[in-house]
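Slide 14.
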Amino acid sequence: MGRLKTPRSRPAPGRAGGESESSERTLLVCRDPAEIDAAQWNALLARQPSATPFASIEYLRALHASESAVAGTGWAPHFLLLEEAGELAAACPLYLKDHSYGEYVFDWAWADAYRRHGLDYYPKLTGAIPFTPVPGPRLLATTHEQRLLLLRGIEAIASQAGLSSAHLLFLDAADQAAAAEAGWSMRSTVQFHWRNREPEPYADFADFLAGMQREKRKKIQQERRRVADAGIRFTAACGSEIGADDWAFFYRCYTLTYRAHHSTPYLKRDFFARVAKTMPENWLLFTAWRGGERIASSLIVVDPVKKTAFGPYWGAVEYIPCLHFDACYYEPLAWCIGHGYARFEGGAQGEHKMARGLLPVETRSAHWLAHPQFARAIDDFLAREGAGITLYLNELNDRQPFKAAAPPLAEPSG
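Slide 15: predicted structure.
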């Protein structure tokens, strides 16, 4: 691990003078998650109200050990750790990146503008969970002051290395507040999440459909009927119920999805093998069968404690009309309702999800640009883009799929 000079921060509200414990406070840069104390990291994560399984040390270690997120794939770990009295007090999963793939907050135009001005945009620093557009904590901390220290530490890393920029993606509310106070530029994007009915949860999938507008309800029923008429049935397996052959078939389907788009999977087979062993309780697999033959597979991440599901990863060995919607939305939603889950996050983009009962949610990222003129130009761009996002959200909310007595719109995660 590399030691970083601890940046100064403002005194916490109500404290006079400077930081009496500053001599015991150390910022470190870690280039291998295996070097981080797992118990301390996960204990810190557990104290985050918006914690997700993706930020667990097991998930992050699997990304690295499987060579899915390493320097060779453009994700060089530079995890920032704040130690106080020798104990992990705050942290940020940070990566040095030489591209913008796998982020889902698109800055290709920014990179092109740098190139056209003869400047290097890459490498850059990105605080994110690789390949995972799920909102949650990026500045793992227990105080606002610690979050500000992490932000100043990120700025120091970028400045000392002569990098163009630093980015924190899909932030929770506490991180957003700290980044805004630190002067970072804020950016909005839109996702689509499903939330269970409150205060009385849906009794079953039919009850959920009953709350939708007639046209939307009929379309979903027709899509499910087409899949059933094709002879497709689904099974669901969770945790240790998922066998080695299930994982093997899933990964085959997963690679076929990328192949159909002339791309290469971000996550390697070894990644799934590792997380199946280290965090089995967080995986839910749906398999589509026709007779005794597997046809498709969709993999969902679940948090049994917070009753939240995320996903999906998906693929099929042959095309069957409407199978994608059933495997990726209807089956997971029916499972969530049946197991009393509160939320299902459908991932980045996809306005088509709205017709399936997932409602628009604003997500936020924060950006620090070293070059003052580019920082001003991007602030101007984000102001215009933000106004457009607001109009877009208003438009989406005006055509939500539920009847007049609809559940409240989903709130941003965190």
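Speaker note: The two ends are 30 Å apart (CA to CA).
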